[in-house]
Amino acid sequence: MAATCEAAGTRLAINHSRRFSDRFQRLRALIRGGQLGDLLHVNVSAGAGGLGCIGTHYFDLVTWLADAAPLAVAGTIDMEPLPNVRGAEFHDPGGRGFVTYAKGVTASFQLSGRAPMMPLIQIVCTEGYVEIIGWAAPGGRIEAYARPASMRGEPKTRSIVPERIAFDPGPPLDLVDATRRCVEDLLGTHDENTVSSGIAAIDTVIAFHLSSARGGTAVGLPLADDDLAVDIPIT
């Protein structure tokens, strides 16, 4: 799609809506603000299955928050996935695994269909962490904690009670508004490289399938040659 659109002079955007959500844009600004230090690791537990349908959004979210491209995937897919709620003709299993990124960032993903959709994201940084619980629902919350500024010089081996950082997460995700912003991105209103990041997210989905078929061994990214010749179901 990217090559065809570029050749035709057609603008293309990938609607990974979380990067266009006010809530996650505020979170990204918090991470980049330095209060938490450098981003080290992200834990994502979303459940409900669907590496292609659901997982791709979380793969893009981590890439965007870390501002780092995925480098390798080691994981497994659900061998006996539950029936797809969209119909028997659809097949998009969930999975679990570990992804390494540029800049030394890592992430673990629990996207198995055996777990219910109760999104939990934990972001671990060098000076603090963020916990995101039920972020899409009106009652969801985002809480950030960090070592007190006066204790930043202490050795990392010292146990210190973190202080809560004042953070206004803003309104829940509005898919219509996020889609509007994605369309505006085509017009240059926003500065998001959704095409390359979209390809990276799809590469990650495929790599989960390849790694699982190879007994969990790591698959390097970006994909090339025979690794791009496989047929991966995405609903």
SSE-based structural type: alpha+beta
Helix count from the secondary structure assignment = 5
The overall strand count is 9
Question: What is the highest CATH level, the class?
Answer: Alpha Beta
> What is the overall silhouette?
globular
Element-level helix/strand string: HHEHEEEEEEEHHE
Which bin fits the share of residues in helices?
A: 25-40%
Give the second-level CATH assignment, the architecture: 2-Layer Sandwich
Query: Radius of gyration from the CA trace?
Result: 18 Å
> And the CATH topology?
Dihydrodipicolinate Reductase, domain 2
* Mean pLDDT over all positions: 90
Strand order of the largest sheet: 8-7-6-5-1-4-3-2-9
Span between termini: 17 Å
List the helices and strands and how they pair.
Blueprint (H helix, E strand, L loop, with lengths): L1 H7 L13 H11 L6 E7 L5 H16 L3 E8 L17 E7 L4 E6 L8 E6 L2 E6 L7 E6 L16 E3 L9 H12 L7 H20 L5 E2 L15
Parallel strand pairs: 1-4
Antiparallel strand pairs: 1-5, 2-3, 2-9, 3-4, 5-6, 6-7, 7-8
Description:
By secondary structure, this protein is an alpha+beta fold. The chain has one domain (2-81, 88-222): Dihydrodipicolinate Reductase, domain 2 (2-Layer Sandwich). The chain is 28% helix and 22% strand. The protein has helices spanning 2-8, 22-32, 51-66, 175-186, 194-213; strands at 39-45, 70-77, 95-101, 106-111, 120-125, 128-133, 141-146, 163-165, 219-220. A nine-stranded mixed beta sheet has the order 8-7-6-5-1-4-3-2-9. Helix 3 (51-66) crosses helix 5. The longest helix has 20 residues, at 194-213. It starts with a helix and ends in a 15-residue tail after the last strand.
